[in-house]
Amino acid sequence: MSSTTQSQHPTTPPPAAPRVRPAKARRVRRLSAQDKIVLVIMVGIPTLIQLALVWIPTVLSILLSFTRWNGLSLESIKAAGFANYDYVFNDNPAFWPAVQHNLLWLGFLAIIATPIGLLLAVLLDQQIKGSKIYQSIFFVPVMLSLALIGIIWQLFYQKDNGLLNFLLGTAGTPQAVDWFGNSSVNIWAALVAATWRHAGYVMILYLAGLKGVDGSLKEAASLDGASATQTFFRVVFPAMRPVNVVIIVITIIESLRAFDVVWVINKGTNGLELISALVISYLVGEGQSIGIGSAFAVILLVISLVPITIYLARTFGKEK
């Protein structure tokens, strides 16, 4: 019986496995001769410019900082070891005042100039009448070079015919203040001039940040009963954290590379010593010493790399 049943119901063979088509090999398009030429031009030329203007001078400055050289002939270059750095840190009378002035520059921009820029951005973000005109007016100093800004403020601070002394009623009198010549006040006068430009730069960055804040966050805060001030400092300002980080880095770099204004005023002397001004004064000044000037430049480079490295580490860390 069982054999008859098996003959009547034969076992069906298992279904054949589906045929797997071999994957088509990905066609790789080879670069033509024209593509290679374009690639070389687009990559090679910027790389050469970067090497010529940034990396090669940086490496040469580091090497020259360990030498004594008057800049006249290559035969006069002599190894100096760390003598230049020892002179900068221990024997140069202008180095530590310059460090203090750079720190003062940083503090003034961070505490005074940056909040002014933020305030301008908040006011102009309220869609007031003529806001575009005001933005253009406040942004004009950003488009000017710092050297030109120094010249403009020289006219404002001039002792005999300056606008400030004229407004104070002391122009042409013995009571007139020499704002750029007096070593006790010229650093503050220069900081006001730098603030005029920095505040406009910060204003534009914060305006862009305010435009990018989600409006629903403000609406949710207002529904919860938060005032306009509470909404800004507890919702809007924290939401602009990427912009805040950028502005912090920019402010630090601006304080380190400050040069043009003080050089226009009195070549970075008489109470306006800055590290950047010391670099130029030793490289091209009367007491020319390429080794000492290079040592100042390397010190400035190392200090500048600290905020840049922190910013890049945070940026690429978030991307990962």
What is the mean pLDDT? 82
Strand content: under 5%
Taking pLDDT < 50 over at least 5 consecutive residues as the criterion, the unreliable ranges are 1-7
The oligomeric status of these chains comes to: single chain
Q: How many helices?
A: 14
Q: What's the number of domains? A: 2
Fourth CATH level, the homologous superfamily of the largest domain? MetI-like
Neighbour order of strands in the largest sheet: 1-2
Question: What are the secondary-structure elements, in order, as H or E?
Answer: HHEEHHHHHHHHHHHH
Q: Structural class from helices and strands?
A: mainly alpha
Number of strand segments: 2
Whole-Å distance between the termini? 72 Å
Describe this structure in words.
The protein is mostly helical and 320 residues long. It has two domains: 54-94 and 273-320, no CATH class; 101-258, MetI-like (MetI-like fold), CATH 1.10.3720.10. The protein has helices at residues 2-8, 33-64, 83-91, 95-124, 131-143, 146-157, 163-168, 186-211, 215-223, 228-239, 241-256, 260-266, 275-284, 290-319; strands at 67-68, 78-79. A two-stranded antiparallel ribbon has the order 1-2. Helix 4 runs parallel beside helix 8 (186-211) and helix 13 crosses helix 14. The chain is globular, with a radius of gyration of 32 Å.
